[in-house]
Model the fold of this input.
Amino acid sequence: MSKITMTVNGKAASGDVEGRTLLSSFLREDLFLTGTHIGCDTSQCGACVVHVNGVAVKSCTMLAAEADGAEISTIEGQAAPDGTLNTIQQAFQDHHGLQCGFCTPGMVMSAAALLKENPKPTEAEVRHYLEGNICRCTGYHNIVKAILAASGQEIPAIAAE
Amino acid sequence: MYNFEFEKPGTLADAVAAMSADEAQALGGGQTLIPTLKQRLASPSVLVSLSGIGEMQGICMGDQGEMCIGGSSTHASVAAASGYRALSALAGQIGDPAVRARGTIGGSLANNDPSACYPAAALASGATIKTNAREIAADDYFEGMFATALDEGEIITEVRFPVPEIAHYEKFVQPASRFALVGVFVAKFKDGVRVAVTGASEEGVFRWSEAEAALSANFAAEALDGLTVDAEGMIGDLHGSKEYRAHLVNVITKRAVKAAA
Done:
């Protein structure tokens, strides 16, 4: 076991972890931040995406010990302290960008990373960026709409409509 | 996952020392290794993270105009680099954004997955793989599926890519995994053309010498008319038969040449 310390959603967090402890396990089981979902545990679905030092990563495919000293943001840190949703979350609600909601934390975190790097993405760029986030309700359409809306753009009549 | 000790050395010398432990395993970005550990297909005693070593980070242009990429550079950092456009474009097509944020060039080349993208770039570019112990030419480095010239405990510290006059990587994506079903890197240098194929052969990445000869004489897609690769030795699986992959090698090489020209 070794001791790790990190900043999670602006607050200091620490714990003792085994070498094999995944960042996703540490967040969920030690810090009880269960908004980060484990969908596949095989690095494909993206439900576990969090930001490590501002960059979107799959927390089920990173060791907790690798995140020692890092700044982590999870879905729990996205809304304001009074519960007011951030722009992306609100857009997901407004555009019905979720059905069962399981993939949503990862979708929102990936969307936030995309808009930071590319504030006005095209529809094609949004779809390309979400390649590592799987939604089994086939909800991509409204997810893409929500992200375009969150970027402040007009939502075009998008493909398949 | 079986448990292991975790070490994160801050210098190459410390990493080399840590790698001398029995059953030690280097950890790059972990985008292949961590899923492998989860499946209990590997059981190292100690995992040596290479992510904290400053001397293995960074990308720059060398004295001979070659691109020098630190072994711990992520796919995202290579994708964002300028100086070798075809290589950056290749890096930007690996996996998905979260995978590119963690996965490293050294990790990919050390693993030598038969469907990975980087081996095609390294072989077609005639890259040099620099380790803590020596320099290995790409032509001597790849030794078959998941096999390389690396010795036990040897660490890739840097990869040097000569920059061709023109080059292009064409990837026929296997849509579920985003690995290459077949990927072809074509690189035209002053003294000839090199063509490396990934995803197709059971021996891993290979140079298609007939295509290299034809393209060195005439760098045009038509030069490949009538050239075939033997289906024997190609990968046949649920995604495509040996014959299908053999056919794709010609098709994708033509597309790569058209895109490069």
Remarks:
- Chain B touches chain A at residues 1-6, 8, 27, 30-31, 34-35, 37-38, 46-47, 49, 51, 76, 95-99, 101-102, 178 (CB under 8 Å).
